[in-house]
Amino acid sequence: MLDWIGALRRVEALEDVDFDEALIENMARRWAALPRTSNSRINFYTPTFKSYQSSEIASCGKNAWPALSITGSDCKLQCDHCKAKILEPMIPVRTPENLWRTVNQLIEDGAQGMLLTGGSNHRNEVEYGPFYSTIRRIKDEFPQFKIALHTALVDDDMARAMEQSGIDAAMMDVIGAQETITQVYHLKRKVEDFELTLESLVNTSMKVVPHIVIGLHYGHLRGEWTALEMLQRHVPDAVVLVVVMPQYAPAKRPFVTPDPHEVGRFFMDAREALPNTPLLLGCARPSGMVKLQIDSYAVMAGISGLAHPADGVVELAARLERSVKITPACCSIAVGEEVMALDDADDTLELDLEAILAHERQNRRPVFAKHSALAGIKVVGDNA
Ligand code: SF4
After folding, report:
1. How far apart are the first and last CA of the chain?
2. Which atom of ligand 1 has the smallest separation from the CA of 185?
3. What confidence score (pLDDT) does residue 329 get?
4. Residue stretches of the chain with pLDDT short of 50
């Protein structure tokens, strides 16, 4: 069996990073026992590989995949990790007429799709009712324009209304701990309501891509494993994993940074629980040393897609003999691009990855120039 710790230690960008070696050995054993499927390869999403920089998240993909909010920046829930701040940079479309006009303009400017969302009412529902006929009109007029909808909580009727309006992909956060729903979301709903929502959505023809926000309980992992069990009972098209970034948390309810080793353990459990489901790591995750740890564990656990990889992580995937693909797009959680990219293999670049990595490392960190990087390691630019 390949020596994972040895492979990891050969990646210079990761040489000062603290890893749990027992966990890595455990992951190597469990990975070896998993069936090889199309999920065994890993797709890195970067705007362009050559000009890519980890700190450039804000500049990516906005024109092609804008995010629109039907409530502007208003949200009744004011969850502790968000305080509705996620809505602030979005394009406000508070009326159906405004939505229609805005989408027409966006398409003229080159948009391929959008994320449509909005703030919640006190029941964690986004009130899309008045917008469905306009969404239908958009899909009838521009069938190629993809729409990912953040559904929040729904029942069967609401899910069917979304389906009938032509929504391509439905997204929701799956929460598995009652105390997180009550305390972080300030919400009087049950864990079962999240499972019923999932069930209603997977019973439609929409692509269903739920999110698990890891560390949602003030930075601690609580309901994540229960959320996984819910997903095993109602298997979606893909799952997006996000690590909480609590920069908006109020001082009196602070979040800790999630333990990266525990996050790594959860990645592996998720991979085993859903072996045939694409698992995508969204770009929202803490930065710095923790990102290096989290991204490395994600690669080791067999995450299928990863947005904005940290330095050294593409090389790590290659050294672990993964089939590596590069999609030259920003895979922002906010615009749902990962979801659409699942269907869009034509956008995947077949690159001479060895040469590009060597070039990147020489340019970015001259200390690497003395090494010939990936010589001898099989790297696949997979277009399949
Ligand atoms: S419901 Fe959504 S937008 Fe509103 S505060 Fe909570 S996470 Fe943010």
Report:
1. 26
2. 6
3. 60
4. 48-59, 61, 331-336, 341-342, 344-346, 349-352, 356, 366-379, 381-384
CA distance linking residue 12 with residue 349, whole number of Å:
25
The rounded distance, in Å, linking the Cα atoms of 361 and 368 is: 6
86 lines ligand 1 (CB under 6 A): yes
Evaluate: CB of 84 within 6 angstroms of ligand 1.
yes
- Sorted by sequence, the CB contacts under 8 Å of residue 36 that are 6+ apart come out as none
CATH of the domain at 131: 3.20.20.70
Q: What is the pLDDT of residues 78-97, one digit of tens each?
A: 999 999 998 999 999 999 99
Domain that holds residue 135: 4-370
**384 found inside a domain:** no
Please give the pLDDT value at position 376: 45
Q: How many domains does the chain have?
A: 1
In a domain, 382, yes or no: no
Q: Is residue 179 part of a domain?
A: yes
Among 70, 156, 170, CA closest to 119: 70
Query: Is the CB–ligand 1 distance for residue 87 below 6 Å?
Result: yes
Answer yes or no: are the C-beta atoms of 270 and 241 closer than 8 Å.
yes
314 lines ligand 1 (CB under 6 A): no
Give residue 77 CA to ligand 1 midpoint distance, Å: 6
What is each CA distance from 62 to 47, 50, 90, 111, 170, in whole angstroms?
A: 11, 19, 10, 9, 20
The reply to whether ligand 1 has any atom less than 6 angstroms from the CB of 79 is: yes
Q: Is the pTM of this model over 0.85?
A: yes
Closest ligand 1 atom to 87 CA: 3
Quick check: is 383 in a domain?
no
Q: Which atom of ligand 1 is nearest to the CA of 76?
A: 4
